[in-house]
């Protein structure tokens, strides 16, 4: 099997407020696929909304892969701010200056000349030669921004927001920058500069335009179109996407035969679901013009279509209006674990098998998770690697601009137990995941701690305090450093008793590894007197090494009470 992975199918088409005829659509599409943005809310990009200085700094940090080294800038107004880390990273890279000696003013609108200056400083640091002689402006930038704006114009890093009359340019330097204008500036610049998220991604419409300097003339309202594939590639791609099993493709010349394999790899790389239902292929060339293909898939086209149909129905039933992306992801996670059981016969590898039979292996878990998250509007990928000494697949999920590992298979341990939900592999960083998983493919970095993100977003008001509290409580992740993390047997018993006394059917506790093996420790902790006191009919539990807190075991306790 060809083994190449790639990002999910999110695009500007997802956004109901981005017209397909918009000249900015291709730039927005690129940034979505590159993981730089996922919109302001499900189905909305907010193209004409203005950006703050903090928001633009965050976009620059993601697009140019800047890292916060922990050193402190002189700004005293970013402490506790949701964007403190990206602002620090941008300052450390020499990208941003403050609005005063000790102020960054993160919540002020970012002016177009300020945005140009940030990008131009990065460009110069990456070896771009200074801009030519100052251009003629009808609305001249401030003196400190003149070189930057001139540089951006000379590199043609702009969209329809720039106009020109004769030799005089209009950049509107002191206007606030909008989200669609940001998309044009970032997409064009990252395609021209090294060390950006674009470095490992496929060539797209805007990438081709930037690479060839075939830049739109100002005020030209024709959107950038996708590169036209040769007819044989269009035919082959169409057959693969339709999951056809036998077909012929006509080549224009014999040299194109050598291009078939890399083109197939690219098609698979651009379509995660197709990649993981593809089984194998044989093709023969008649030596003149015709190549005959025989392709096999783990799912038929009808079965894949049925998965897509059911995915729409499932998402409409589990996603409530007003849910944020974190809540949607949890709903998908819980559905998959509740609906599926691991196929110990190792006979089914598909989402279709999981939906129709209720059992599948990790590949089926990852495919169903992928399809449901995609239907819910959440960018994600399928990761291929090893875990538990064998080949394994799971998902990478993009939430609020950061990537996290999500393994629904390992959160559904064998033997299957109806109603049991665990979150040991729910939104882990690369470092946390590498404790028992490995992978070698080229995937987005997952380096943002999930718990820290949720708390910061709640503090900034981007998600409600109640939403954050409920999410962490329902997943049992509030116990990572709280009262449910036990260092002694009595403290473990007290943590269990808190859950039972509250009448919880399921809860999570942690204890320090030095207390001993889980079966022996839990045998001592779950006492007959506790069962009698709270009218408990049965205790069940699952356990494993804590993926977030080294040196601890995490126990998921399920309780059945006498009615």
Instruction: Tell me about the largest β-sheet.
Output: 5 strands, antiparallel
The whole-number mean of residue pLDDT values reads 85
Report the structural category.
Answer: alpha+beta
What topology, given as strand order, has the largest sheet? 12-11-10-9-13
Protein architecture, described:
This protein has helices spanning about 25-35, 55-65, 85-90, 110-125, 145-155, 180-190, 205-210, 230-240, 260-270, 270-275, 300-320, 325-340, 350-355, 360-375, 430-435, 450-460, 465-475, 490-500, 520-525, 530-535, and strands spanning about 135, 165, 170, 245-250, 280-285, 290-295, 340, 360, 380-385, 390-400, 400-405, 425-430, 435-440, 485, 505-510, 535-545, 550-560. The N and C termini lie far apart (about 55 Å). It has 20 helices and 17 strands. Helices cover about 35% and strands about 15% of the residues. By secondary structure, it is an alpha+beta fold. The strands form five sheets. It has a five-stranded antiparallel beta sheet. It has a four-stranded mixed beta sheet with strand order 14-15-17-16.
Write the layout of secondary structure elements.
Blueprint: H1 25-33, H2 53-63, H3 84-92, H4 112-125, E1 136-137, H5 146-154, E2 163-165, E3 168-170, H6 179-190, H7 205-212, H8 231-241, E4 246-250, H9 260-269, H10 272-277, E5 278-285, E6 290-297, H11 301-318, H12 325-339, E7 341-342, H13 351-357, E8 359-360, H14 362-375, E9 380-387, E10 390-399, E11 402-406, E12 426-428, H15 430-433, E13 437-439, H16 450-460, H17 465-474, E14 485-486, H18 489-501, E15 506-512, H19 518-525, H20 528-533, E16 536-545, E17 552-561
Helix pairs in contact: 1-6, 2-3, 4-5, 4-6, 8-9, 11-14, 12-14, 13-14, 16-17
């Amino acid at each position: 099997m060809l083994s190449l992975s790639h990002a999910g199918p999110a695009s500007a088409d997802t956004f109901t407020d981005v017209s397909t005829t918009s000249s900015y659509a291709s730039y927005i599409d690129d940034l979505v696929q590159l993981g730089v943005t996922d919109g302001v809310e499900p189905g909305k990009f907010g193209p004409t909304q203005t950006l703050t200085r903090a928001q633009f700094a965050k976009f620059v940090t993601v697009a140019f892969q800047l890292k916060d080294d922990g050193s402190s800038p002189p700004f005293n107004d970013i402490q506790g701010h949701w964007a403190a880390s990206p602002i620090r990273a941008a300052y450390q890279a020499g990208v941003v200056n403050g609005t005063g000696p000790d102020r960054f003013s993160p919540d002020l609108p970012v002016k177009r000349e300020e945005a140009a200056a940030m990008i131009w400083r990065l460009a110069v640091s990456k070896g771009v030669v200074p801009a030519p002689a100052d251009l003629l402006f009808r609305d001249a930038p401030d003196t400190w921004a003149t070189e930057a704006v001139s540089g951006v114009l000379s590199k043609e890093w702009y969209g329809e927001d720039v106009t020109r009359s004769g030799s005089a340019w209009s950049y509107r330097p002191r206007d606030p920058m909008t989200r669609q204008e940001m998309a044009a500036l970032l997409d064009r610049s990252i395609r021209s500069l090294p060390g950006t998220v674009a470095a490992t991604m496929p060539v797209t419409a805007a990438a081709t335009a930037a690479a060839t300097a075939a830049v739109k003339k100002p005020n030209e309202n024709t959107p950038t179109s996708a590169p036209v594939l040769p007819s044989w590639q269009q035919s082959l791609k169409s057959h693969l996407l339709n999951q056809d099993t036998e077909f012929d493709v006509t080549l224009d010349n014999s040299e194109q035969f050598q291009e078939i394999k890399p083109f197939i790899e690219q098609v698979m790389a651009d379509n995660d679901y197709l990649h993981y239902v593809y089984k194998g292929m044989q093709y023969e060339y008649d030596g003149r013009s015709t190549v005959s293909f025989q392709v096999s898939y783990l799912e038929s086209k009808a079965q894949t279509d049925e998965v897509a149909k059911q995915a729409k129905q499932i998402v409409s039933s589990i996603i409530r209006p007003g849910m944020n992306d974190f809540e949607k992801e949890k709903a998908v996670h819980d559905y998959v674990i509740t609906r599926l059981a691991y196929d110990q016969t190792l006979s089914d590898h598909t989402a279709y098998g999981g939906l129709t039979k209720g059992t599948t292996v990790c590949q089926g878990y990852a495919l169903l998770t992928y399809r449901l998250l995609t239907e819910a509007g959440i960018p994600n990928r399928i990761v291929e690697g090893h875990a538990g000494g064998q080949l394994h697949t799971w998902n990478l999920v993009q939430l609020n601009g950061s990537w996290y590992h999500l393994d629904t298979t390992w959160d559904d341990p064998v033997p299957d137990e109806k109603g049991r939900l665990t979150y040991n592999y729910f939104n882990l960083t690369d470092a946390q995941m590498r404790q028992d998983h490995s992978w070698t493919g080229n995937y987005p970095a997952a380096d943002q701690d999930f718990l820290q993100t949720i708390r910061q977003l709640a503090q900034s008001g981007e998600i409600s305090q109640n939403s954050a509290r409920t999410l962490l409580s329902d997943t049992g992740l509030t116990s990572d450093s709280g009262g449910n993390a036990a260092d002694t047997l009595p403290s473990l018993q007290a943590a269990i008793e808190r859950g039972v006394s509250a009448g919880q059917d399921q809860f999570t506790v942690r204890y320090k590894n030095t207390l001993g093996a889980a079966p022996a420790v839990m045998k001592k902790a779950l006492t007959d007197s506790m069962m009698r006191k709270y009218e408990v009919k049965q205790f069940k539990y699952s356990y494993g090494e804590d993926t977030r807190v080294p040196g601890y075991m995490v126990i998921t306790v399920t309780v059945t009470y006498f009615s």
